[in-house]
Amino acid sequence: MRMNGATVSIDSVSRRFTSGEARVTAVDDVSLVIEAGSVVALSGPSGSGKSTLLHLIGAIDRADAGTITVDDVDVTTLSRKQSAAYRSRIGFVFQRYHLIPTLSVLDNVLAPVLPHKVDFDAPARAAELLAAVGLEDRGRALPSQLSGGQQQRVAIARALLSRPRLLLADEPTGNLDSKTGKEILDLLAALQAQHPMTIVIATHEQHVAERCDRLVRMRDGQVVADLTVTPGSPGLLADAAELRS
Ligand SMILES: Nc1ncnc2c1ncn2[C@@H]1O[C@H](COP(=O)(O)OP(=O)(O)OP(=O)(O)O)[C@@H](O)[C@H]1O
Ligand SMILES: [Mg+2]
């Protein structure tokens, strides 16, 4: 097994939705190769197709055309059962945390494995992850007793339980103040240093995009810019300013 994360190859992928009379091409003929171990920001205005593309990569939704392969798995042709197995091996952080309100923090981290009888030491791993996200003493709390940033940390710990080689994060800092958002990014960087993985982050925020290796900008379902981010490069700020417009 390769140690540096999954390679994601997206080839001519489209996803169309019909709502009432309206037809929307949420993802419109997108092709991208995301290198193993890279951290990629998906940016673009609201409705540009970022979440839809993440859902397609994560096999939460299915493309109407094109193929997506994650390492050697073609995620666009999986059966329902195969999709579930694939999803259990990747990490997905949702925009609104999606924690289960009636379960403790620790059980939320364990939620992906609770329905299955697994033989690895999931509770110890969950406790370790809670410590890694700085919440070792909150395992018995309910999600409603935590702040937004803390809930997002729980969601990240949950996403990492299966030691995924691919982490998909949809606006992981979108509901947080900028200081907490920065802490979440520091946390992701630290976790990636411990356990190499490919990370794709959908984000509106320029400061998030600037922390990534690569910035893919979407508009109307299409990729309209694709930049390699060089830390501290004078060109980046100009590029980022242009991307904001
Ligand atoms: N399940 C759905 N049914 C109908 N239309 C949908 C569905 N999901 C997404 N869309 C449409 O597809 C387009 C892309 O939506 P998407 O959620 O991917 O955008 P986004 O870039 O993630 O936006 P935001 O930044 O607001 O999260 C939008 O026009 C949206 O209305
Ligand atoms: Mg979205």
TrEMBL record:
Keyword Mitochondrion: no
Keywords: ATP-binding, Nucleotide-binding, Transport
CDD domains cross-referenced by the UniProt entry: ABC_MJ0796_LolCDE_FtsE (cd03255)
The keyword Magnesium is annotated on this UniProt entry: no
Domain of life, source organism: Bacteria
A GO term for molecular function: ATP binding
Domain ABC transporter residues, every copy: 8-245
Recorded GO CC terms: membrane protein complex; plasma membrane
PROSITE patterns assigned: ABC_TRANSPORTER_1 (PS00211), ABC_TRANSPORTER_2 (PS50893)
PANTHER family: IMPORT ATP-BINDING PROTEIN
This protein's name: ABC transporter
Protein species of origin: Lentzea aerocolonigenes
